[in-house]
């Protein structure tokens, strides 16, 4: 049975620094005061077709078109879903869990969803492939000799980015809000 090495999170950088790094593919919208969380929505999110932005309509959501060779069409449309807020969160008060009772997700300019943060029964690990330069550096920071790199070539190495302990549940319908 094949095995893949799994490494603990990098201790040189915190998860907050990881989230704001330009090379980090994880979305920053899912960051809560306690770290990353799963976003659970009941229903469907309808986004406008991508040809709306090609016509120059700037009143809709912002789209970013990127090319991805893994998709059949070669095109992925990324749409900003909204803004996540925790109105009861007090910065610096780590013992207070009152902020978990109420979370708002503002979708567009006119809708607000109210949800709450719940602890997961079993935590989930977010893992990713290690970067090439991280694979070639040993724990002491020196370069590994070429023979060792050749042995591992063809095999993937994974690292734990963060452990998710919470999910944000939005079970009710969006409510209208004014600007």
Automatic annotation (TrEMBL):
It is found in: Nucleus. The keyword Nucleus applies. One of its GO terms (biological process) is mitotic sister chromatid cohesion. GO terms for cellular component: Ctf18 RFC-like complex. It holds the Pfam family Ctf8. Keywords: Cell cycle, DNA replication, DNA-binding, Nucleus. GO terms for molecular function: DNA binding. Residues 1-26, 47-68, 131-151 are annotated as: Disordered. Residues 9-26, 47-64 have a biased composition (Polar residues). Belongs to the CTF8 family. This is Sister chromatid cohesion protein Ctf8. It comes from Talaromyces proteolyticus.
């Amino acid at each position: 049975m094949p095995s893949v090495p799994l490494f603990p999170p990098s201790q040189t950088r915190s998860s907050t620094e990881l989230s704001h790094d330009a090379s980090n593919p994880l979305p920053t919208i899912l960051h809560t005061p306690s770290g990353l969380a799963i976003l659970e929505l009941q229903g469907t999110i309808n986004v406008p077709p991508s040809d709306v932005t090609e016509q120059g309509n700037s009143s809709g959501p912002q789209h970013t078109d990127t090319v991805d060779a893994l998709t059949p069409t070669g095109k992925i449309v990324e749409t900003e879903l909204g803004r996540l807020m925790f109105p009861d969160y007090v910065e610096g008060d780590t013992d207070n869990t009152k902020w978990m009772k109420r979370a708002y997700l503002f979708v567009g300019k006119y809708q607000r969803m109210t949800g709450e943060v719940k602890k997961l029964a079993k935590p989930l690990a977010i893992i990713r492939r290690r970067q090439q330069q991280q694979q070639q550096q040993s724990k002491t920071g020196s370069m590994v000799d070429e023979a060792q790199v050749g042995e591992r070539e063809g095999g993937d190495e994974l690292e734990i980015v963060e452990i998710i302990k919470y999910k944000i549940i939005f079970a009710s319908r969006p409510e209208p809000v004014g600007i």
